[in-house]
Amino acid sequence: MVFVRAILFSFISLAVASPLQNLVLHEKMNAIPDGFTHNGPAAASTTLNLRINLASNNMAGLEDALFAVSTPDSAQYGQHLTKEEVEAFVAPKPDTVAAINSFLSANGLTAQTISPAGDWLSVSMPVSKANDLFGAQFSVFTNQANGQQTIRTMEYSIPASLVGHVELVHPTVTFPATFGVPRFTSPGVQAPSTTTALGGDAVPASCATTITPSCLQALYGIPATRATQSSNKLGVSGFIGQFAQNADLQTFLRAQRPDLVNTTFTLQTLDGGTNPQAASDAGLEANLDIQYTIGVASGVPTTFISVGSNVQDDALNGFLDIINFLLNETAPPQVLTTSYGQNENTISRALATQLCNAYMQRGARGTSILFASGDDGVAGSQMTRCTTFLPTFPSGCPFMTSVGAATGIGPEVAASLSSGGFSNFFARPAYQNSVMSSFLTKLGSTNAGKFNVDVALTDISAQGENVQIVSEGITGPINGTSCVSPIFASVVFLLNNRLIAAGKPPLRFLNPSCIALRVLQL
């Protein structure tokens, strides 16, 4: 699982100039994130490219609609909303548009709409003006890990006239995420393994030490027959220069799925994304994700969505850009898997909420959004110790499916690396109430005070240790929830294939459907 680590650790107060009257504090970071140093005020003439998120007119109504089309006993189940219907819920009210236009005009600014529903605007201004308008002190911060500098403020305000109309200004208090990359779990080159012949539901003994597509087929009853419905596609997110190599894919298929040799993927790009094919460009994460979608979801059209480095105004390495990109499409993937994320405390609550709401929009239109849950238990992402549970983001968002890792074949148990816990940002959705009541009763006082009992994560788990992949021509095992998200995405798409073939609506937003129980019953 590719995650970022940033813990708030030192309380540093930065003086904030507020020459304007009637400013209301809107967001504040109490400490500089771990791994960043403060280098002093940003140059007054430096241009800031800011994004303003406007309040939507009926997000509660959209949430009701999402659950109505996603809950099996609802009369509206499977009747997913159109692009236009979703945007009608999300579009700002006329008085919100008037308020922001008045603010911009009075200050000589012009904004560009950058989201389909008109709820996100982009506006540029010098640091000096941003400091004045938002009662901020934009400063230069250096990431100690890579030396990159970024301009942020520890707090900002908005005019009283915009309260209730503006959800957030970004990037302001959310610092850039710095994702790591996974590694092989053991060094050296291994010879590609070959497909093991199976008899009935027998699980090959080799699966106890190495997981391959054949193991997954045997463990979970996943069919090897090709999908017959090609009305849509399975999307694989790619970030931070992680490129999926077709040469490595073909080596993997020859060893693990010879019936699928020469199957490949299509490419979509945004923010200057590319997908070079030199061996040195191979990305371990991207190869893993592509090999275990194409290698498990037999014959399913798969698209690798490469997000480039032109995301300096996103501050989330492309999370915000890719979801707005997909919201603008009329025929996006039915299933989207993402094996990247960060600790929940590295992102402002307001930004987390709006990104989660974007996933709700995509879910209401009929996309199953899956995220790997992270790789360090309740300590968050790639951490070594914690005193309180640290949830990962966006796994706590109630409008997507968080995927954890299991291990072993007799019996299968939770992998110790798999992140979980409870969100500190989001309220528990109704679909978790019954199971959470039982869980908390059994838990009793264990770990009392170390977590907030709201949205629980993860939602489902599958094999996530010793998963065999190929990268730069090298075959080897890899561990992590990164392995599980593409595997489960493939299962969902194959289930959808059967449902569509039978004239039934596909699963789409999974959580209210108790999909974990349904998969176990197949």
TrEMBL record:
* Annotated localization: Secreted, Extracellular space
Q: Which UniProt keywords apply?
A: Calcium, Hydrolase, Metal-binding, Protease, Serine protease, Signal, Zymogen
- Principal localisation: secreted
**Cofactor dependence:** Ca(2+)
> SMART domains, alphabetically?
Pro-kuma_activ (SM00944)
List the SUPFAM superfamilies hit by this protein, alphabetically. Protease propeptides/inhibitors, Subtilisin-like
Q: Which domain of life is it from?
A: Eukaryota
Q: Which GO terms describe its cellular component?
A: extracellular region
| GO molecular function (one) | serine-type endopeptidase activity
Gene3D superfamilies named in the record: Peptidase S8/S53 domain
Q: Which residues form the Peptidase S53 domain?
A: 210-522
* Pfam families membership: Pro-kuma_activ
Enumerate the active-site residues: E285, D289, S482
Q: Could you state one GO biological process linked to this protein?
A: proteolysis
Position of the signal peptide:
1-17
The name this protein carries in UniProt is Peptidase S53 domain-containing protein
Q: Which organism is it from?
A: Sphaerobolus stellatus (strain SS14)
